[in-house]
């Protein structure tokens, strides 16, 4: 499509250059020039030569948003805007646009030491409309096209049936079963599994604090106390005397495990249930509640099967937490450093139901989150912003073949694609029929999950190429290349010549050359024009293998970014590698692909903003910030997410949720949290996408995907997603009639539309892109 646009632009410029137009004035008359209605002021007045207006080169290029440069040796001026490059040479009657040569009626010239260029040629080359108003002797430049170009005509089989209306006041909210119902279910299913950890075992194997290996004692203490009038006789009492930030600074651990036989491990597919009771004795939040976080994790990789934040009240509360999907998740602990508080935990029991057990049969306790409830104030404000920033006025003008307005023409607008990106990561299962079908139903965007990373692609590029091919065949409009630099020393992410410490055998320049060849293979040789986005750097705060190898002192880089010196601007020299990485990808993609920095949970830390400041100081050439958004344990509430987005807005970059996940067996929380995370994202002006990191339980990053069960039945959170994207944020059957000014206008969500016109016994349907930032006035001619 971009090649088509280039050819169209070429034709416009060629015609403009070959014919004398109405832009003819006399040399002794004052000429005005306006751009988008703003009159331009130049230190050198425009002149007329051969019926063409010439203006100062820097003034016109910069006013149109282009970067201008001058080469004295060749007497050549260049202007670059996006993927358009215009080159003119002084006194040369030919100019070039993206290396295509065009004849000029008048060449660029130097007058009184200033370089002047033809205003019409420059403006049209930059995609502007140029008109001449004779009465006021004004050159009128409109830099905003009336319509965006339609880049895809694919009509995916999107959902069309819903249980709620399209009104944002008619949201889907989910409530969990009552505690009484869950206790009844627990008693029924308990006999179907094996108890692998009892409360007695949990208490008897509590791990003493060790000042040599941890600092837990700095934040509080614990003891085992007797309990009356409960089914259990002892409880773990944790006293927090100092708030732990981060919460990992204060964990009470136990040597009890989730294994059937200690030391034999826990299979990934075993379905488990954690049950416990807890309460607050004193302290806590101003409202009298407290918080604990129960964690069950793999002790080596620290991947967590349970990481649930629980709110305690003075009464004993019970929690039922199903979990599965993490191999050898055998290490247990409780975080209690959220407040200065005293809390108690008892009745701990873990049951193993084996592989294949239906988790929907297990009880699951929902935590209380006020921000996720109906009527939350933040949501009302977000809905208002969505109405303002995600919708626009779309107009159609209908004319006959002679150019006359056809009055009373009826127009219908039906959306068939979003401009906003809604997507998921894609893996090898895209080769299967069901996966590809549901991918096409739900998403217009995708990202490669693994196979396009430097290591896997270098090992076997065909896997990534097949995934990209099948993703496109599923009708996906926006494709993200993930990721070019995942700077770890593991076997999977680096190419064989660099992985496992081998990078030390190369110079920095040699490594960059290897990287450049990889990038050229992906974007030039193998899959040109396949991608719209690219994660150049991924998780750079915690992944810094190559930067460690090539750091100026040869030492491992600590978590901090800046050297410990008085100057905050003094950074490690190795961070300049990011300048090289991004420049290499920018050159290979020729400005046609947005380049992103993608980061994980560290986006909520000061370190992340230190990196962003350093990117800015180094002049790293990138377009957007990807916020992974894995909320699989502690949830960040919508107001926390919005605060982060607002803080990031100062950097002037696009934002995108790139890897959303909310792996919890609590389907009410998963659905409510997914709904509100999507709303918070869609309401942020800088956001242009919301992508999940997997969507199906049959094969997913975490145990509980946000869309489908393993049998492809839609989950509650999947229903929420479809209701928002294709019901509440979708414009359909919108009708309008031509008004007295000859326009039929509606207000709709930005996207691609089928526009059907009925007039004088004729019906005609055309496809059009009504996108943000355009006039969105479509002219249609009926024969």
Structure description:
- This protein is an alpha+beta fold.
- The chain folds into four domains: 2-142, 2-Layer Sandwich (Copper Amine Oxidase, Chain A, domain 1), CATH 3.30.457; 179-365, Galactose-binding domain-like (Jelly Rolls), CATH 2.60.120.260; 390-420 and 729-783, Immunoglobulin-like; 422-597, Glycosidases (TIM Barrel, Alpha-Beta Barrel).
- Helix content is 23%, strand content 30%.
- It contains 16 helices and 38 strands.
- Strands 26-27-28-29-30-31-32-33 form an eight-stranded parallel barrel.
- Strand 26 (421-426), helix 7 and strand 27 (445-448) form a beta-alpha-beta unit.
- The longest helix has 19 residues, at 508-526.
- The protein starts with a helix and ends with a strand.
- Residues 1-28 and 554-572 have low confidence and may be disordered.
Short description:
This protein is α+β, with helices and mostly antiparallel strands. Helices cover 23% and strands 30% of the residues.
Strand content: 25-35%
Within CATH, the superfamily of the largest domain carries the name Galactose-binding domain-like
Total DSSP helices: 16
Order of neighbouring strands in the sheet with most strands = 26-27-28-29-30-31-32-33
| CA gyration radius, whole angstroms | 31 Å
Per the CATH scheme, the topology name of the largest domain is Jelly Rolls
User: Mind telling me which CATH architecture of the largest domain this is?
Assistant: Sandwich
* Termini Cα gap: 27 Å
CATH C-level name of the largest domain: Mainly Beta
Average of per-residue pLDDT values: 90
Can you tell me the overall shape? globular
Strand count, sense and barrel status of the largest sheet are: 8 strands, parallel, barrel
Tally of DSSP β-strands: 38
